[in-house]
Queue: 4 jobs
Job 1
Amino acid sequence: MSEEANIVFKVWGARGSIFSGGADKTEFGGDTTCFSLATGGGMTIIDAGSGLRAMGEAMELRTIETATEIDLLLTHLHFDHICGLPFFEPIFCNNTILRIWSAAFESDVDFRETLLRVMSPPVFPGFRHWDSVRLCTALPGVAMPLAMGGTATPFSLNHPDSAFGWRIDCNGKSVTVASDHEVGNTGIDTQIIEAARETDLLVCDATYTDEEIAHRRGWGHSTWRQGLDLFEAAHGRHVLMTHHAPQRADGEIAQMEREARMRNAAVTFARSGWTHIL
């Protein structure tokens, strides 16, 4: 297969809520949400968690494919999804064109002002490189073109302060990201199933166990069983479970993965560094 015919999907961070280190969290990693999709024609990134720093470093060292024009799609602006942004080395390169997209704002100005509030003193030292970043708003349900080719279409998720998933279609393949979603809103669940219809890879929220979620209603996350329900209803080809709880050790996540695979073999629990060729 030619390089242009493939999408290379890679996990740079799969932890939820906050970075989590320690000897018992090395297999699945401690960095927060960041995924990349690369083709011979360019690159798309989904979320800018702490995993984005490692990705930028790999680009600088040329250990992964690099691109001068990048689309970064944000699901939402909770800090675990944007904390890697000021540490992303390509921002500091004059040759990089970085477009950051959000579907949560009515205008580019509103988006910029909100992000600046988070990335300004006293919360964070003044970030002086915004001029090299283009902040853009997307419309839910409306496909937009990507620099790498193909399109990205945002859709609603059930999460505090609003969040949006993304379906990326390119070269006849698709990746649908629906992390940070709490199953239970019938209307939104149905929209996700339709957005992910026959997708090649569905990325699902699997933060909680069955016991934990009973005490965390309204927190905006789901269990792997609920994510698998969405995946099977959408008739997808492979599902990636992500947003692992910060306290979750490797052994516990591995056990969850074994249980999930007993029900459906097309399941993987996200690990930093995991790569999938579509």
Job 2
Amino acid sequence: MFTYLSMGLGMVALIAFMVKCVKQRSVGGVFIKNITSLFFLFTTATAVFYNQNFWQYGILILIGGVFGMLGDIYLDQKWVYPQHNDNYLNAGFISFGIGHFFYIGAIFLHMGFGLKDFLVPVIVGIVVAAFTLITEKPTKCHFGKFKAIVTVYCLVIGTMSGTALWAMIQSGFAVQYIVFTVAAVLFLLSDIILSSMYFGTKNTPVNFVLNHTSYYFAQFLIAFTVFLIK
């Protein structure tokens, strides 16, 4: 019950944030955004309490979510302190990347994967990173001095997505990993949109809404896998 309640309140907070900031970012809007992030952490925590037999998986997902929230906070600071844009952007990439490693670890722990199971995820990661670099010019994105960290980050999130996909296949399409794979796809979509906003010319209200909707849906779905895990 509390897991569903936390997800519901999180969606309400997300809508409030987007209404507040869709035209112009504000301190009040950022506060609401952080509340939204807290709700996906609450969702994970309540799910751990409900599904205590898999607490190790849940704790790793919770830690990954904490790093996701920190990454979000760092990225927001680049708007508040534009003079430190580079530092906050790099910190955001690093924090999100660490979070993805915890998500990968949670799946490997639960599935009992070994080193050989890294093959498919890493291949997916390489494909995602290569695709990002190849499409830089066609999408009119200019990574510039951030190209190296963007490439590494794409490799990490691609590997996380590949891990979810591999777990879904190896588990016989278990519900929790179908949900995780959907979340990974939404995460990728969110980052593609964010890339066009940060490194391109598409920082529009529509992309603002799409970016945050796909991102928060991804985080809440990953949190919900703790409730579903068997």
Job 3
Amino acid sequence: MTALPLLEADSIEITTLVDNQIDALLGGDEEVRRKPWGPRVHNPFVDAPEVATTLHAEHGFSALVTLVQGGERRRLLFDAGVSPTGLIENMDRMGLDAKEIEALVLSHGHFDHTGGIAGLVERLGRPGMPMIVHPAAYTQRRSAPPGATPTPLPPPSRSALEGAGFDLIETADPSLIYEDGILITGEVPRATPFENGFPFFQRQTADGWEPEPHLMDDQALIANVKGKGLVVLTGCGHSGIVNIVERARALTGVDRVHAVLGGFHLNGAFFEPVLGPTVDAFREMAPNVIVPGHCTGYRAQMAIAEAFPEAYVQNAVGTTFVL
């Protein structure tokens, strides 16, 4: 395929605003900057004038992406977490201004990536910003393992998003934004023999609930950093993290992978057979930075950390990766 004209960025900064864990004791450096503490407040039950606050962790994901290119800094929000207030409270405690966000990208339609839009809208009023979203993100879904009560996976409300003033850009195709400095993958082809989705996912149709192992609205964000290579950011990675990275390579014509960050969705017994092939694929990619978060799962995190001790970085809310 013909490569899309993704321009080289001077750098990209990715700040984790929402993720499943917070750890104030993690170390950092110039490329991995930790900021787990919020402002100091008075607490009458603590014997000190003031005591520090921390950030909130929750089962969801959101990242603030800052593209640095030609002396300009452009900011977008990639996903929004699960609770109405978690995203905006963490931004406040980190001293980040929501008014600097220029666009919003949804990785897919699950509620743990969209719930914080409520707090963002409450803060900004009518945002009037573009939102890139796959048309299938509004699908009603659930997880229905055999013998268990189905778990609803509700989507965002299209009418509410329109009513709030978002300019919805609904497309399954790749999107170049910020003067061709950032690429959104659009729909990701399922090519590997081992990334087969999740058999218990279902979608609601006019005929009732039907199997939907592949969430085709799952998409990722790509930048190409000068002298380093591709940076790939995922939400849940329902497309399969290897499929996503290979899609990034194919779309850009750039083979070198510098960093892969976000949710890899390898949690639970069903995905354990996928861990080995995924680690093998990462060996071929040879990224300098691997940051599995959110829904990656403990066993997958440990497998990746053991296989790539120099590249693996533990994620936590309040971490900024300067890539």
Job 4
Amino acid sequence: MKIGLLGSGRMGHEVERLASTLGDEICVRFEQGSELRANSDAAGARVLIDFSSADAVVANLTAAAALSLPVVEGTTGWLAQLERVRTIPNLTMVYSSNFSMGVYRFLQLVKTAGRLYGGEAQYDVYVHEWHHSGKADSPSGTAMTLAHALLEVMPQKTGLLTAAPSGKIPSHTLHVSSTRVGRVPGTHEVGFDSSFDQITLRHQAFGREAFAYGALQAAHWIADRRGIYTMDDFMAGRC
């Protein structure tokens, strides 16, 4: 399948590398200086994959909708604009903070654990993530997805702290912390801690291939659909 690529960063390069091994073709690239426009030549692309920047997402999706091209939206840090994005006429996209299928299953495990420990007041919970020093957002979009999922199922947590604490953290606050160092592709850890024991769940990526593979699979899934979908829809549609 012919696919257009938005963005030229690490993820974009990994998508391009993997696409050729899976029989897909990156037929056109749009990046800074040659942004996607409503009158752009998409070179026969059936789907666009976007791993650009948060401040470019609305413009990219608006142009894609004008071209009637579905989008796999994998850019992080833009979800505060989701309500605005939903008003874009004729938009078709599937979006996620992380297209790794392993991360998706990890999220389901975290939700299940959160329900199990949600009724146990003696258990505290944390989210921590590690990424390479060049990552643009902190905490990661995946960490925030994990945190919000925990808030939904753990009544003892009603708010998030994502900045460095300046004093004691209230017991009802879920601390989401980050480390930026070296070349770490991405590690996310959720821990449930009490005076009796600690339970730790961790997902560690060995590279960016899983993210690229999921995005390419999502591109095939969205190609003949219309509407706005999430990773939940995509994963359910594969079953």
